[in-house]
Amino acid sequence: MTLRQAMERALQQNPEIAIARLDELKAHEAVRLQKDPFAPHLFFGSGLAYTNGFPMSIDGAAPSVVQGRVSQYLFNRQQSYVVARAKEEARGAGIASAAKREDVAFRTASLFMDAERAARAGEMERKELDSLQKVLATVESRVQEGRELPIDAKRAAFNLAQARQTADALDADRESAETTLAIVLGYNADDRVRPAAEERAAPPMPASEEAAVESALQSSSELRHLESQIAAKGLDSRAAKAARLPHMDLVAQYGLFATFNHYQDYFLKYQRNNGEIGVSFVLPLLPGPGVSASAAQADTEASKLRIQLANARNQITADTRRAYRELRKAEELRDVSRLDLEVAREQVAVNLALLQEGRIRLSQVEESRITESAKWIAFYDSQYTVERAHWDLARQTGDLLAALR
Fold first, then answer.
1. Helices (H), 145-220
2. C-alpha span between 180 and 190 (Å, rounded)
């Protein structure tokens, strides 16, 4: 896969993103649940019962063949605040889901580059093995001819064994990175995702360090989520205080009485069809100390979240400045590595010319090639460091997903 293909797959199939989507859906359903009392509820059933003596009521209703009840909140400020809090929590769940998408996208990019780096470094190390094998053969031949010391052969054999160990370690790192990348993309642990060869541009660089900090503060999912939690706690406090306010409910009832319940024997007027409709008005006169305690608890939680919000702002500012400076340092290191590589390549060219003139040995040429391979690996590492720093800064400023489009 290319990096873009890996990102698209991760955003669609990553298990953590799927869980975040389900949490968001659950939060939206919670809004419907809290709004439920404001919708009319109609219940029908039967309260038919045998009576002996005075016809008593069952659960507040006379025995009847058919019973119907309707209930609905007309005015309940406390429940209105509960609904508003549920809506705010649903908004917070959406923010958390977006933050999870950004986190998974950054991890995907990091694992992709790790796998790509391990593959490229492994290829370079295999080429170095070929050169070390030639050096060992040349040194052993010269030792037999008496032109090299035996310790030189041992040193060449050690270098070969060390390079082989490094190559095997790089292969293991590559397999581990490809397997972890597959899991992040929603595949099984037995699968492996290999980076495809491609030319890609790094995310755009902010105009300045201050612009990066400003963008990070404006787009931070963490700050917006904390602000949503503070708003939800404020609604919790208002809901608790609203318990002192009156509330009104719609009430309606219908009953179809039977003819054998002896109502006509005890009341002057009797009719089978009976109904009532009206409004229930409740005024809490002494709601108790729990109201103020709940409000104070919500206010305390809000104060705690405000402290966390201020701390998060400082941390985001510091992390963004660090990411910006790390990117600058990585670019400087890449430029130095490029110059170092150019020197190593020029040295190989010089040694080849000297070899044709018979002025140096073949082992010296191979050693210069080994040095060139090491410089290539260092240069590739510096390139990956720069690209990773670009993606890290894009994650801080909220431009990571936009850069992939």
1. 150-184, 209-219
2. 10
Mean pLDDT of the chain: 88
**For residues 167-171, average pLDDT:** 87
- Asked whether the CA dihedral 116, 118, 123, 127 is positive or negative, the reply is positive
Both tokens assigned to 57? 């009521």
Q: Please tell me the distance from the alpha carbon of residue 187 to that of residue 181, in angstroms, as a whole number.
A: 9
Sign of CA dihedral 81, 82, 85, 86: negative
Going from N- to C-terminal start, the domains of the chain cover 3-39+76-245+284-325
Segment 179-229, tens digit of pLDDT: 999 999 999 999 999 999 888 887 888 889 999 999 999 999 999 999 999
- Map residue 197 onto helix, strand or coil: coil
Note the pLDDT tens digit of each residue in 233-257: 999 999 999 999 999 999 898 888 7
Token digits of residue 235: 């609604």
Pairing label, strands 247-256, 273-282? antiparallel
CA–CA distances in Å: residue 256 to residues 46, 56, 248, 270, 361: 9, 15, 27, 12, 114
Q: pLDDT at residue 309 above 70? A: yes
Residue at token pair 């659960």: 59
Of 182, 143, 244, which is closest to residue 6 (Cα–Cα)?
A: 182
* pLDDT exceeds 90 at position 85: yes
CATH classification (class only), 3-39+76-245+284-325: mainly alpha
CB burial of 230-242 (b: ≥16 within 10 Å; e: otherwise) equals bbbbbbbbbbbbb
Looking at residue 36, the DSSP 8-state letter turns out to be G
Distances (CA, A) of 94 to 23, 33, 222, 223: 9, 18, 12, 13
Distance separating alpha carbons of residues 291 and 301, to the nearest angstrom: 16
Burial 120-147 (b: 16+ CB within 10 A, else e): bbbbbbebbbebbebbbebbbebbeeee
Distance from C-alpha of 109 to C-alpha of 3, rounded to nearest angstrom: 7
SS3 50: coil
